[in-house]
Amino acid sequence: MTKFVLAIDNGTTSTRAIVFDHSGTRRGIAQKETTQYFPHSGWVEHDPVEIWENTREVIAGALADAQIAATDISAVGITNQRETTIVWDRATGIPVYNAIVWQDTRTQSVAEELADAGGIQRFAQLTGLPMTAYFSATKIAWILDNVPGARARAEAGELAFGTPDSWLLWNLTGGVSGGVHATDVTNASRTLLMSLQTLSWEPSLLETFHVPAAILPAIRSSSEVYGTAVAPLAGVPVAGILGDQQAATFGQAAFGPGETKSTYGTGCFLIMNTGANIVRSSSGLITTVAYKLGIEPAQYALEGSIAVAGSLIQWLRDNLGIIHDAAEVEGLATSVDDSGGAVIVPAFSGLFAPYWRTDARGVIVGLTRYVNRAHLARAALESTALQTRDVVDAMSADTDVTIPELRVDGGMVVNEFLMQFQSDILGIPVVRPAVSETTALGAAFAAGLAVGFWKDLAELRELWTEDARWVPVMPTDERDRQMRVWRKAVTKSLNWIDEDSPSR
Fold it and tell me: Burial code of 129-153, b = ≥16 C-beta within 10 A, e = fewer?
């Protein structure tokens, strides 16, 4: 048996390839940043060709770093930024337009019109999702309606749609020369086009969103052999696909109902496993597919999606120049005792869970002459933890489950101030695993299970180990005060966008 599994992790800001051995230990890694395009206010795009080229480059880099060859790889798994929408020509492999990223709000007016006709939860019974521009359906329609000739070509079967997993799978398995056009249930569940119960494309939704069935990928499980890769992984089975947050959940070994993780990346995403039960939220959460292993029944989850977390730190760096490097933010934040009364609500593209307010925009409140850049750095970190508390409260309300501890992962968990503040504001322990690349690890787990590299979930659970733990020390009355102030600040961000607002 070969000794390794390779995971491709296409995130919002970069693409990574990571080689894992049988113990789940990282043996090789390569990473390359993705160029971000902002052609108009509220628009966010990536170049799909760059994503594929970067993927090829990091695969080679990870193999070189591990000092192995493609023949040493048992399987490859893919995990990806969800909802991001790519449409390409099946005959040439050329995208008809840039990828429209999950953060993009250009189709918000369409989403609002559909919500006006039946409420923001209009399709929630079928899909588990609120009616917002976050998901793929309106993005697909925008491309078909705005690229000359695209709709007719789509209806004729000449074009293909996919989230980045489908794009990478198609290219990995041959592209125009027989590439497999498929996705898994976790990514399909984020399009507003799939029924949670049947795990298939829903004809009534395709009609509503004007999406031709001919453009859609086949929906498969999260762990099975989809096809065989060509160069640079010639002969290796592609055997696992999970959307990034579901992959992180899987990598955290949160396989049982009630187990919860939070990923701190560009955004912040909490997922609570609900097992085989589809739990409908009445508190502003998303119902989604957690994973599906081969022919076994699908497992479901509640998710709280926070649009802005790590990207707020990037904003401090790139837009305000408060820091020169993201790593500086912790030292700056801890140079002061508190945020000086400043609170940042980073509703750059509206508020996601549990509010789902597209009319919100980012605000900084509580400013006085006393507030300096250190206070703003601290307020930025605190906002991530405060948003997370809102989501945890919503999860407890929906499930009557008190979360005993929160497993965390993602780039921001190296920030010890943030982790301590998160524990304080939640009033429960926060636990960081020994393997920090849990998103990639989850994709590797899914692929490895499909080919027998790992035997079962019990074996995977044994691989999870704790690295660090933070316990709350903040007094209860201070925790309550912080949340009261935060929720008052949230109200100041609402009702900002009007019909004539330039930032719609």
Answer: bbbbbbbbbbbbbbbbeebeebbeb
Tell how strand 73-80 and strand 4-10 pair up.
parallel
Q: Which residues of 381-397 are buried (b: 16+ CB within 10 A; e: fewer)?
A: bbbbbbbbbbbbbbbee
Distance, CA of 412 to chain centre: 14
Residues of the chain with pLDDT under 70: 1-2, 499-504
The CA dihedral of 466, 472, 473, 474, to the nearest 10 degrees, is 150
Task: Determine the pLDDT at residue 325.
Answer: 87
Predicted pLDDT of residue 499: 64
pLDDT digits (tens, 9 = 90+) for 300-330: 999 998 989 999 999 999 999 999 988 999 9
- Give residue 435's pLDDT: 84
The confidence score (pLDDT) of residue 501 equals: 61
Q: What is the CA radius of gyration of the chain?
A: 22
Token pair 């690295």: residue: 467
Q: Residues 159, 174: contact at Cβ < 8 Å?
A: no
The answer to whether 418 touches 385, Cβ cutoff 8 Å, is yes
Closest CA to 437 of 106, 25, 149: 25
Nearest Cα to Cα of residue 218 among 210, 206, 226: 226
Pure H helices in 324-434: 328-333, 373-399, 416-426
Contact 175, 49 (CB under 8 A): no
Residue 18 is predicted with a pLDDT of: 97
Contacts of 364 (CB under 8 A, 6+ apart): 342, 343, 344, 345, 376, 379
What SS3 string covers 424-467?
HHHCCCEEEECCCCHHHHHHHHHHHHHCCCCCCHHHHHHHCCEE
- Do residues 269 and 306 lie in contact, with contact meaning Cβ atoms separated by under 8 Å? yes
DSSP 3-state assignment of 186? helix
Which residue shows structure tokens 């304080």?
Answer: 424
Q: Is 412 exposed, middle or buried (0-12, 13-18, 19+ CB in 10 A)?
A: buried
Residue with tokens 């509703």: 347
Euclidean distance between CA atoms 79 and 246, whole angstroms: 9
Identify the CA nearest to 237 among candidates 76, 69, 373, 93: 76
- Could you tell me what percentage of the chain is helix, strand and coil, using 3-state DSSP and rounding each to the nearest 5? 35, 25, 40
